[in-house]
Amino acid sequence: MEKKMKNKTSVATQEGDRCPDNSAFKQQRLPAWKPQLTIASVLSSFFLTGAFCLAVGVCLVLSANSVREIQIDYSDKCSDCSKLRENSSNWNKECHCSINFTLKEDILGDVFMYYGLQNFYQNHRRYMMSRSDAQLLGRNVNRSYCAPFSTYRNGTPMAPCGAIANSMFNDTIDLFYNGNSSVIQVPLLKTGNSWWTDKNVKFRNPKSHNLSSAFAGTAHPPYWQKPVYLLDEEDERNNGYVNDDFIVWMRVSAFATFRNLYRRLRRTRHFADGLPAGNYTFRISYNFPVTRFKGRKHVILSTVVWSGGSNPFLGIAYVVSGAAATLTGFVITGIHLKLRKKKTYFQKQ
Amino acid sequence: SVVCKRQTRGAAASCGWSSCPQLEKETGNRELSYSSLAENNSIKTSKYNFFTFLPLNLFEQFQRIANAYFLFLLILQLIPQISSLAWFTTVVPLVLVLAVSGVKDAIDDFNRHKSDKHVNNRPVQVLINGMLKEQKWMNVQVGDIIKLENNNFVTADLLLLSSSEPHSLTYIETADIDDNFLDQDFHFCFYLLFTGEVRCEAPNNKLDKFTGTLTLRGEKYALDNEKMLLRGCTIRNTEWCFGLVIYAGPDTKLMQNSGKTTFKRTSIDRLMNVLVLVIFAFLGLMCLILAIGNGIWEHDKGYYFQVYLPWAEGVNSASYSGFLMFWSYVIILNTVVPISLYVSVEIIRLGNSFYIDWDRKMYYPLNDTPAQARTTTLNEELGQIRYIFSDKTGTLTQNIMCFNKCSINGKSYGMLCFSYSLGFVPLCHTEKVDFSYNPLADPKFAFYDRSLVEAVRLNDVPAHRFFRLLSLCHTVMPEEKKEGNLVYQAQSPDEGALVTAARNFGFVFRARTPETITVVEMGETKIYKLLAILDFNNVRKRMSVIVRSPEGDLTLYCKGADTILYELLHPSCNSLKEETTEHLNEFAGEGLRTLVVAYKSLEEDYFQDWIRRHHEASTALEGREEKLSELYEEIEKDLMLLGATAIEDKLQDGVPQTIETLAKANIKIWVLTGDKQETAMNIGYSCNLLNDDMEDVFVIEGSTSDDVLNELRNARKKMKPDSFLDSDEINIQFEKSSKKQIIIPDEQANGVYGLVITGHSLAYALEGNLELELVRTACMCKVVICCRVTPLQKAQVVELVKKYKKAVTLAIGDGANDVSMIKTAHIGVGISGQEGMQAVLSSDFSFAQFRYLQRLLLVHGRWSYIRMCKFLKYFFYKNFAFTLVHFWYGFFSGFSAQTVYDEWFITLYNLVYTSLPVLGMSLFDQDVDDRWSMLFPQLYVPGQQNLYFNKVVFVKCMLQGIYSSLILFFIPYGAMYNTVRSDGKAIADYQSFALMAQTCLLIVVSVQIGLDTSYWTVVNQFFIWGSLSVYFAITFTMYSDGMYLIFTASFPFIGTARNTLSQPNVWLAIFLSIALCVLPVVGFRFLKAQLKPTPSDKVRRNYLIKPEILLSMAWARWGAALHRLGSAWSRGQELATAIVPSKKHRNPSGGGSVEPQALNTSLLH
């Protein structure tokens, strides 16, 4: 037998010119790792994932619960204002309203003030497209993506152009602390609310000796009350396109319900530790109409934790998934044990 | 039929009959009057030129549905109201795909241009005005006389006029046409003085046929294929020759043959086309839902939102907006039908074809032949074969013939001393006959019966006549380079064996001219005049020669198939006929190929009359063949029986084992052979097709339609009695549906059966009403042997199974008679063996030995199939998961056709981020390695049943994709809803959401491909990790400050990656999406493997747990082989004494194979 084998191999080594190469690649013999779904790997993946998810989930839920948040819907609180704003001819009439609320406990740490909008479709494709990034970079652009808000009929270009800019949220919200004797305006920071990249790279004012001349020859968007170079007259670095409120608004939301950072608490003096308990008042200059499209407006005060805001979704999802994974792990163990019993029974037979 | 008239007036060449190696040059001028289709000999196989390339190639490419669809999308995108995606999302993939195909076409065409140019500019010597002048090939015209020298390529289809060799023979190698090495043409030298006229048929593609006449000085000569030199051949062993150009350029037979190739498509291809249509419908449905949604939304909300977002120009109603949105969504969701699908499929098939070419285990060192995938589009079908149709001679056997036995005048001679089918086992102790008395004997020839030699030496008249016949009646060419060193060039190996036998027994065929045959009879040289050759064909199944001996006797010698010849015998031979029949049956029972030989003395007067009529008939332009065959019939009757010859056709190595393995893989094997029933059945036993374990072997040999029907019915009754009940499903189905579209499901017989059917009965069975009966009965049997079938019947049988069984068929053969079958079957395999290359040229795969078939199917086929299925499953999955996220987002974005992902991500997803990992899997994946696929042929079964990819699997992929897309949308949605970053800043913005969703998606599909990959080579690791890294690298690059400042409009996502991917909750959401997408799949797969394991699961489980089993199985195999050898040897002893072995004993695999089988089954449970 062996002799025959040898003969055969000696024949096989007589290779002609057309004999294929004996490389691992060509002979499909590349060394390889061959993972398999074994009971050990499957169960460990289920149980480990389960345990991890449960742990993370509990942490997330706990931290989300530790977030203090106050959310007030003020769309109808100032009924006169909302009615007034329904008619667009009243655009230059001012309308103010105040909303009182009480903090029973101190809110410690950094406090952020957001405005929230509901039913405002910032993620509509045509809305989202209607902007000119080049213009916001301070470039002079002729071709514009800003339809239908690019130029006025007389040819004056809008600055900034586009539906997003035109619809910028323009309520002003101030917060007052009603102390025992006096009313103190809570100090709020209006800068540092946007991404560093947006503030420093994505948005730039046109270059000129002063801002108003930089925007010469342009007009503010139709719904704006003042031109873009008057957005913040106090702070040169927060004016024009690089205004934080404007930048925040221009970062459009993914969904129709969203909140944007409006102000941050400046932690000085009375408010060094956060917002102390007591009575507060929001003074709102009501400019942004929402009733027409059945939207809602909120003002929100909130703290943050490592996982972000108060959204409990991720925590709950983790807990549920972790529980499900662990449970499935047990079910698989059960099935496996049952099958193995059956198998040994057969083998004995 | 159209007859094209070509005259060669003025062109003249003359040469002497047998003494004119020189060509006398006469005036030949080129003023020819011919009506021709081709002006000159230039050929053009290229399709494009420099200017037409772009338009023509693009036109061709856009005829493909996928490309046209993308063009349509592109046009949609140009409409501003509809355009929902940037132009580059469609243009980049489309241009890439078009460019890849375009470059491939351009290279192909460039090569064709080059070869055309090369061919057209080859020099050739043309006789112009009596002078030989060098001309380019393309300038050669019809009617030219050209001179070719040794090793020249034949320029055009030529009529041979003369050559340097004696008798104007010219040797040609027909490699380009069919590789019949050193074919010979007999050519007669014509006196062509001044005027001649050649009439020939219109150009056609029949390589083996040519009809024409030559008129010279009022005399007509018949022209046939023998006198033609076809373009594509090469002149060999001939110093020079002259030829007249008959067909030139595109009219030549070679060019007429090229081009039209039948295009085979695999079942996966067809399924894919159906699925693409289903997906289109699905796409339409999704778009419709979203369009309606948009209509409602615009009516309910968008109408009021117009303060901030007025409706687009020209849109004045919600329903019109919905209509526009339908098309916008068609653009966005187009990725469910990815353009890269078809390209990827082609790449995978090409790669897997290369593996076949590269496989050393399918390389045959003896004739230096590697396996070859000639068609690169059918690989995965190799993993689905359910029926193999095999030729016998040259496919199962080696086609090396040995003259073993004969029967002369009622006496049987010879002994079967070496049986190759049982291995190289000596069966008797008799010594080889010593032929040393004959100086011209072939030393390799072996014969084991002295009595025959003695009979010859004692001048036994019938024995002399027998061998004289064998030395005269054939078409073999001798070659005697050295004195006494004779080499025979035979077109069929049978003839070679017979002539060699006659040579050794003292009737040495020495030389041949067109008119004479020189034979050295017992040392005495005799020259016979060859008066006529009545040649062999598949209908006649016999050949005859008419010779005049030196003594002046006129004799007709005939050899042929017994059934045919027996009907032509003179009644006086009846008793001899009986004895010979007995011997014939005995020979056939041993698996030998038999021929009957007979002779007839002719009368002078009758013969003269006959030869005159023969000449007339052979120059007739129309109906020549019919007239000739009538004449042949007339003279070939009242023959005197001489005896019979028996030739052994050796079995190829490893055939029984291969057949056993293939049978275990549930592949049904049908042998279609031209041999007699007994021979075929015996080969069936010796190569393990038929064996003792079978309940019964039915033989269908009825000679009327009713007989055949009864026999078939009886067989079926025995195999499955209840198939005749009215309650039988198939019978019910028959009644319901019309017979034409019926697909017969598989029926299970109550045991293992074999069926043998003769060609005669098959002819009836293939007729309309019996077809179904035949298919039902035959397909219940494990093995079917059809004997005495014609090439056409072979194709019909294949067609029959294709028509009524929804099964993939494979035909394997080596000869020209298998071509039709090879072309008909889903997959044709050619054995590159003795019988030339015609089968190989029309095949899809080719290799040298039948035993490589098991590797082709069980290893390459299986892998290709599994890889393709895995590829398709994953591909559809990843695109569904990718695209449907847009669908869900539609409900949250006012159905405004807003995409979830960055447009660049959409562009690059299929092309860059996910293409290589899946290609890597489809090129390298192995669920079990090749040894295991061969050891467990059961692993092949799922492919046959199409279990790995079908409509159900597709729906599952779709559901998995939908599930994943839900997770991939709603987890990021939930995680982002009203959330802020840990520094209080925005993260719920669109760009962050897009980045998060696309990162989730990409990691999920990468993990999924990792889960699907069961064989992680370095390449797979590189591709998977590489793709992920590339994703992050590209993303960070595109979202960088620099890119934004340079291409502001194109890369608005500046900073998103930095600001988002630094957040813990983003990564937590990504992790959760992965866990939720992947864990259910893991659990589901594991439980499925536990509860309903596939054969592959079982083998893999054992593979992991007990690798030592492989070793023990290998040992069991060796044990079985040893056992087999031992029993064969002991059987040899029996054979020597009993001569006629019983069929039952000739099963070489005996009981030894039980062991591995038992092991096999135990492993699988």
UniProtKB/TrEMBL annotation, chain A:
This is Cell cycle control protein. The keyword Hydrolase does not apply. GO terms for cellular component: endoplasmic reticulum; Golgi apparatus; plasma membrane. Keywords: Glycoprotein, Membrane, Transmembrane, Transmembrane helix. Pfam families: CDC50. The chain crosses the membrane at residues 37-64, 313-337. Residues 1-23 are annotated as: Disordered. Belongs to the CDC50/LEM3 family. The keyword DNA-binding does not apply. Coiled coil: none annotated. Its main location: membrane. It is found in: Membrane. GO terms for biological process: phospholipid translocation.
Automatic annotation (TrEMBL), chain B:
It catalyses: ATP + H2O + phospholipidSide 1 = ADP + phosphate + phospholipidSide 2. GO terms for cellular component: plasma membrane; trans-Golgi network. PROSITE patterns: ATPASE_E1_E2. Keywords: ATP-binding, Magnesium, Membrane, Metal-binding, Nucleotide-binding, Translocase, Transmembrane, Transmembrane helix. It is an enzyme of class 7 (translocase). Its cofactor is Mg(2+). Residues 840-1094 form the P-type ATPase C-terminal domain. Its EC number is 7.6.2.1. The chain crosses the membrane at residues 62-79, 85-107, 274-297, 317-343, 874-892, 904-924, 953-973, 993-1011, 1023-1046, 1066-1087. CDD domains: P-type_ATPase_APLT_Dnf-like. Mg(2+) binds at residues 391, 393, 814, 818. Residues 1142-1165 are annotated as: Disordered. GO terms for biological process: Golgi organization; phospholipid translocation. ATP binds at residues 391-393, 495, 536, 559, 593, 673-675, 788, 794, 817-818. It is found in: Membrane. It comes from the Eukaryota. It is a multi-pass membrane protein. Residues 40-91 form the P-type ATPase N-terminal domain. Its main location: membrane. Pfam families: Cation_ATPase, PhoLip_ATPase_C, PhoLip_ATPase_N. One of its GO terms (molecular function) is ATP hydrolysis activity. The active site is at 391 (4-aspartylphosphate intermediate). Belongs to the cation transport ATPase (P-type) (TC 3.A.3) family. Type IV subfamily. This is Phospholipid-transporting ATPase.
